[in-house]
Amino acid sequence: MLQQLASVCKEKKAGNKEGHQLTVAVKQRLLEEGEGRYNFGAMVKQIQVNGPSTLDVADYISPKIERRQTQDMGKGFFATSDIQVGELLMCQKAFELGFTKKVGLSVLFNLQTEEMKLGSQAWVTETVVKRLWWNPEEASKVLELWAGDYAAVVRRDGPTIVDGRPVVDTFMIDRIRSLNCFGCPCLSSEHLSPREPRNPVQPREPRNPVLPKDDKFEDVGLWILPSFINHSCWGNVQRSFIGDVMIVRACAPIAAGEQITFSYAHLLRDNNRVLEEQQKELRCGWVFTCNCRYCTLERNECKAARNEREKLLQDVEKLYRDAPAGMHASSSQVRILLAALDAKIKAIEKTYSSSCPPATVFPRIHLARAVNRKQSLCARYNSWDGTRLACEGVLKAFGYEIDTSNNDVKITKYGYSELLVLSAMWQLYICRKVGALHMGMPLNGKVMVERVDTGGKGRAMDKLAEGWRRAAETTYEGLAGEKTTFEKVYALEKFIVI
Q: pLDDT category, 151, cuts 50, 70, 90?
């Protein structure tokens, strides 16, 4: 269809401004659909200017993945050839998306489940029902999605017509919406600022009472193909959003034949993770118990060790919350605080038994969070060595293996990818870029870095610094879906004051 339109536009565009514009647009859609070549910068700018809105782009799915039946998880996507970190696997527009700021007051009462939905969730169900009524040929797209144990009263392979009218099972549509919708930010990049160390958690559907009260992603949408990507607490792809477009990129090398997965519920929700709470959320929201590799290993651990680990992390969080601002802390206060923090971190390390698999197989999520808190405090109190070592500790706890022996950064093993990893890589870049650092926290709350005169090393970006920057940029691309905003969000001049 697009190819035919391009030919027609080419014939009629001579001296026709609108024809020329249409030709350019069609050619861009063909590049998007066929090669996954998107102008992400323009897409981001449109959302920044217009606010929550839909984008005029084509759908793309990589030829390196295919949808097929799994053994025990219904249909899913699998790699047909090897996939590298950062590769674009899917770029899909929402079938329907409810922007909270635009849908107004929508209310839905489900008499079967005795539940009431408000806002965008109710709006999506209502809009999908209306769309299938007016366009029954689209029914198979939606009805193919998982509906749990709901007993369908209509055909699932096409429209059901009675007396010349389409039949839409509203209860089934609401069930499909609840099990397949995604909560989403309007722009994922807006939640990746180094000044806002909050995970860009993207729950599949923010409706469960176990979700954090401060969850910001109230927009809800239904994306057809991404809904077939199954869950793993430690997935190999990440999803991100630009308006109504979902972007799926590989965050680890994926071998041919391996299933494509991402997490429906973030491991670091509410700054920690308790196995029982994670499983409760998955059962409540998606009606299954997770048996991924991470959950299986954690379930086999001693429960007392897991409880002790959770308690120690709460102690670390309290130390972090009560820590004085950099300008108000004396050297003795800093020493005592960091010593207490080190003691808690060592105690958390001991909760992982000697028989526990290494972090490359079983990431130390609690340990990573604790060391990240130390990373932040060392930066606050001008401890360059402490900051650098803590950053390396965060990456190690998340299961990364990194070789810097040749004055370059080579990631030999990818671990669990998320915002704390990006933060650690970026601070390691700063350490190498500037040399010795003095970090302070002015009254305006903005992190500032003052360079110390360390000769040529402190004024030149060496090969290792550039390696850390590339690693941070790749991680950012997975979390944001694009890297056109990386320079703006992580601009070095925001941190360095000469």
A: confident
Helix axes of 2-12 and 17-35: crossing angle, nearest 10 degrees:
150
* Cα–Cα–Cα angle for 375, 393, 267, rounded to 5 degrees: 85
Would you state the pLDDT for residue 154? 83
Q: What pTM was computed for the model?
A: 0.85
- The structure tokens listed for 79 are 């790699």
Report the candidate in 428, 416, 407 with the shortest Cα–Cα distance to residue 471: 428
> CA 167, CA 229: separation in Å to the nearest integer?
28
Amino acid 172 reads M
Q: For 181-192, what is the HEC assignment?
A: CEEECCEHHHHC
Q: What are phi and psi of 79, to 5 degrees?
A: -80, 135
H-state helical runs in 323-383: 331-350, 365-380
The mean pLDDT of 280-288, rounded to a whole number, is: 78
Measure the CA–CA gap between 312 and 13, rounded to whole angstroms: 68
DSSP secondary structure, 44-64, as one string: HHHHHHH-S-------EE-TT
pLDDT at 434: 67
Residue among 191, 187, 226, 189 at smallest CA distance from 205: 226
What is the residue whose two structure tokens read 């722009």?
187
In 211-306 the beta strands, taken as DSSP E runs, fall at 219-222, 230-231, 237-242, 245-250, 261-262
β-pair partners for 88: 249
Q: What's the one-letter identity of residue 217?
A: F
Using CA atoms, how far residue 128 sits from 159, 165, 218, 225, in Å, is 14, 17, 18, 16
Could you tell me the two tokens for 16? 């026709």
d(CA 235, CA 255): 13
Could you list the beta-strand ranges (E) of 111-244: 115-118, 160-162, 165-167, 182-184, 219-222, 230-231, 237-242
Q: 195 Cβ partners below 8 Å, 6+ apart?
A: 445, 446, 447
Span 20-52, pLDDT tens digits: 788 888 899 999 999 999 999 999 999 999 988
Residue 472 has pLDDT above 90, yes or no: yes
* DSSP designation for 358: P
